[in-house]
């Protein structure tokens, strides 16, 4: 099958198929006399496998490992299970991080007046060093542009 047919079968775009071939995730496609790529049925199933793994958030490196395991009929399913559980744990960590970000942003937005006043707790928070930065740099105060800058030196636009 040509690259368009392989793309349709697998749900992977032709551009991504060429990329996966370039990085060695799939073998180089056979070429016709005219130079067109030709994919076998196993190639197309590998692409479908890759698509499903990407949909589940596996990295390209992890997918390469999964492909090796998938093709190895003597593999232990425990190896595959360990990879899946490790990935699930990483996703849970990322979900918790994203939920914390949402909570922080919602909290900051709740405390922002959202009016014509220049004071903005969202911008003030973004200007503050993180906890890790504070520990490494010691105590210091980040200037709040607009709030701590004298009115005469603020850029209010061209007159």
Automatic annotation (TrEMBL):
Pfam annotation, one family: MerR
Domain of life: Bacteria
PANTHER family linked: HEAVY METAL-DEPENDENT TRANSCRIPTIONAL REGULATOR HI_0293-RELATED, REDOX-CYCLING DRUG-SENSING TRANSCRIPTIONAL ACTIVATOR SOXR
Keywords: Cytoplasm, DNA-binding, Transcription, Transcription regulation
Phosphoprotein listed as a keyword: no
Entry-linked SUPFAM superfamilies: Putative DNA-binding domain (SSF46955)
UniProt protein name: Cu(I)-responsive transcriptional regulator
InterPro entries: CueR, DNA-bd_dom_put_sf, MerR-type_HTH_dom, MerR_fam, Tscrpt_reg_MerR_DNA-bd
């Amino acid at each position: 099958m040509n690259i368009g047919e392989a793309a349709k079968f697998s749900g992977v775009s032709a551009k991504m198929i060429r990329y996966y071939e370039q990085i060695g995730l799939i073998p180089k496609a056979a070429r016709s006399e005219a130079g067109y790529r030709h994919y076998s049925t196993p190639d197309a199933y590998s692409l479908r496998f890759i698509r499903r793994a990407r949909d589940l958030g596996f990295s390209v490196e992890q997918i390469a490992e999964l492909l090796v395991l998938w093709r190895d009929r003597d593999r232990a399913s425990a190896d595959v299970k360990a990879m899946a559980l490790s990935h699930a744990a990483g996703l849970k960590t990322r979900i918790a991080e994203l939920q914390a970000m949402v909570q922080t942003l919602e909290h900051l937005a709740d405390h922002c007046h959202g009016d014509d006043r220049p004071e903005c707790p969202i911008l003030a928070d973004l200007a503050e060093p993180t906890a890790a930065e504070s520990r490494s740099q010691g105590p210091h105060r980040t200037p709040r542009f607009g709030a701590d800058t004298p009115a005469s030196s603020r850029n209010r636009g061209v007159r």
